[in-house]
Amino acid sequence: MRLSLSLSFALLLSFSSPALAQVNSNGGSTAIGGFDPVAYFTDHAALRGASEHAFDWHGGHWLFASEEHRALFAANPARYAPAYGGYCAFAAADGRLVHIDPQAWHIESGRLFLNYSLDIRRQWLADHAHFIQEADRRWPSSLERRTNNSRILLRPSWLLPRGETE
User: Fold this and answer.
1) Which of 35, 61, 78, 92 could be joined to 135 by an S-S link, Cβ 3.0–4.6 Å?
2) What is the tally of structural domains in the chain?
């Protein structure tokens, strides 16, 4: 039953609007699951945003913990938006779009990277320069495949039990 619900949800995501594919909603209606992207830089923490501090950008509905954070993002979204549309940086290196754990983050050279889990972040950090290079190379085509009705993985395939698919 759980597998069929996951599969149904993944299929629902795969036919969503191409404009929304630019930004990871993490299965919800807000960019990066409603977390404040500016807070990673200013507070060095994953903070939930609030609907009264919202900003729409790149097909995503972004939430912020304060009006100050919203204003910073609105003035320069590219400075604060996470790499790869907020999808998992480890998976992006393999050309895949995977949801993230907002607590699994890292800032490198002024860029925010999010990952599927804390364990995946540890693996990513072990060779992050290589993973960033690969993800940067693959990112445009990953997004293009997504807008052509491929699917977003709720769990990366390497975390599924042997023989199970979403």
Assistant:
1) 92
2) 1
